[in-house]
Design a protein that fits this description.
Order of helices and strands: HHEEEEEEEE
Structural class: alpha+beta
Oligomer: single chain
Largest sheet: 5 strands, antiparallel
Number of strands: 8
Number of domains: 1
């Protein structure tokens, strides 16, 4: 009688372990994406509350125009009395996509806050504001809008911003 395992038996066991490890990693990655998206939605709501509190005391939303040299830092300073910490995207490794965006019209009477979600089927996307700003026209807005992003890039003028269903947006 033989003792030990054959090469075939060992290869089959290694293949099964590899398959299980792959499934575990994929599942973990999906869970991490969902956790980051949940944090993004909570952060946007927290920013919205701070912006609304700012409005209730100042009768305008924080401005983001070039005239006030707006950046994410100046936006954060404007709402500092209404929020403990101004959030940044939980996935700062991908700077091109991992930003929060805040924009206000030049009169300070309307705003939007946006975050790109990784899960395009996230439940929060069913109840957000799907506004679309294209070439100077934003449905329901009286004038153009400037915006700042949490990567602290300088003030930028929106020429095209879409709150389609991979972007979670709130607005007034």
């Amino acid at each position: 009688m033989r003792k030990g395992f054959t090469l075939i038996e060992l290869l089959i066991v290694i293949a099964i372990i590899g398959l299980l490890a792959t499934l575990a990693i994929v599942s973990l990655t999906t869970a991490q994406q969902k956790a980051r998206d949940t944090k993004r939605v909570a952060d946007v709501k927290q920013l919205q509350n701070a912006v609304e509190l700012y409005y209730s005391e100042n009768a305008v939303y924080p401005l983001t125009t070039a005239a006030v040299n707006a950046t994410w830092a100046t936006f954060g300073a404007a709402i500092a009395d209404y929020i403990t910490n101004v959030p940044i995207d939980p996935d700062n490794d991908d700077a091109a996509l991992a930003v929060y965006t805040y924009g206000a019209n030049t009169a300070g009477t309307e705003y939007f806050i946006a975050a790109l979600l990784e899960d395009t089927d996230h439940d929060a996307l069913n109840g957000d504001d799907d506004v679309n700003y294209d070439d100077g026209v934003l449905s329901g807005w009286d004038v153009g809008v400037d915006y700042v992003e949490s990567d602290d890039s300088a003030n930028e003028v929106v020429t095209n911003f879409d709150c389609a269903d991979d972007v979670y947006c709130v607005s007034e």
